[in-house]
Write a structure and sequence with these properties.
single chain; three-stranded antiparallel sheet
């Protein structure tokens, strides 16, 4: 016997004192992308420098953009959440690194457009989106999309 999944809202996750759960947005209003810092801050760089003790050849690339969605959850609340999913950041890296453009600026512009096409055009029209939401211990009331689950949209 298969039990139906109950997809909560961010409000319900907070009320239950959870830090992780899956939700299905009622409506996705739009995808967004914001430019961020290009370099790691000193605290982040200090943590990365510790990795050199174990693997000297690892250089973690800072993605200078945040990606996210504005959406309405099942309870009618409006949210604007960034996506911290490694897969989306790697998607951007792959598009940028495979670009035939000559300047970094042009490569980034092309990559951003291809990520937009994937997250906005393809995901919003051809996929049934679910968000795995999570927070940080130090910011228990601020949730982010830590992973996107996107099976094909089945139209009945």
């Amino acid at each position: 016997m298969v039990l139906p999944l109950e997809f909560k809202s961010i409000r319900e996750i907070k009320e239950q004192g959870k830090s992780l759960d899956i939700i299905k947005p009622q409506t996705i209003q739009k995808y967004f992308c914001n430019e961020t810092e290009r370099e790691w801050n000193p605290k982040q760089q200090g943590i990365l420098d510790q990795l050199d003790l174990f693997e000297p050849s690892v250089q973690l690339d800072k993605i200078p953009y945040n990606f996210g969605y504005e959406f309405i959850s099942q309870d009618g609340d409006k949210h604007r959440c960034t996506i911290s999913d490694w897969e989306i950041q790697q998607l951007y890296r792959n598009f940028r690194d495979r670009s035939n453009e000559t300047s970094l600026e042009s490569k980034e512009k092309e990559a951003l457009e291809k990520v937009r096409q994937k997250l906005e055009d393809e995901f919003l029209t051809k996929k049934d989106l679910y968000f795995i939401m999570g927070n940080l211990k130090t910011h228990k009331n601020s949730f982010m999309i830590i992973e996107i689950f996107y099976p094909p949209l089945i139209k009945i």
